[in-house]
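#struct-help
A.M.: can someone run this one for me? Single chain, 216 residues.
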Amino acid sequence: MKELEISVSEPRAALISIRSLTTGGIALLPTDTLYGLHALASLPGSTDRLAAIKGYESANRGFILLVAGVGGVEPYAELDDYDRDFMAQHCPGPVSMIFRAKADAPEDWTTTGEDGEKRIAFRIPKTEFLNDLLDILGEPLLSTSANLAGEAPLDSLDEIAKLFDDKVKIYVCDTELESRLRTEGAAASALIDMTCRPPNVVREGRSPFVLSMKAT
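D.P.: on it. Structure tokens below:
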């Protein structure tokens, strides 16, 4: 049985979510694309906890870091003017970006590219609830879709709760998001590899980046 379900519209939803996250819990939160599993990135073992409930077997699993703005990306990713211009144009929104990680970026937050260099992925979400959480926390959240490894993302809180049950500490419900998902279907954010020029569209999402960016 899930520990707690609360509506995103309730004033105490943010406070309870922060309490759960800062004490090591995994929270199901609505994003600008679909429901996601989240953990506080700075807490030891957060990536392992997320990987365990997702069923990942590879140690080189990648999670996206949610931050409130470009200032949350700068300390951990190697950025140039092209990257900053891209984020100014496309963020906030349902666009996740892969960058080269700085040498001192936390190891748990990175994956290894085919060239042997470390990569790190970020998104700057465009939802009031998540932005409020990130502003209060002042640090990144690890984020991943609410499904088992290799399976399609789920689009209703009830289905997600049946799958993860009490492995998730808090479920934050968003009826507007669920209505949109029923109409449009579940689709993750676009995923753009910013380590090459032109950037490579790894996952299209709902945004026509291949056309708008002339990306590969």
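A.M.: thanks! The radius of gyration is 16 Å.
D.P.: also worth noting: Residues 5-213 form a domain with the DHBP synthase fold (CATH 3.90.870.10).
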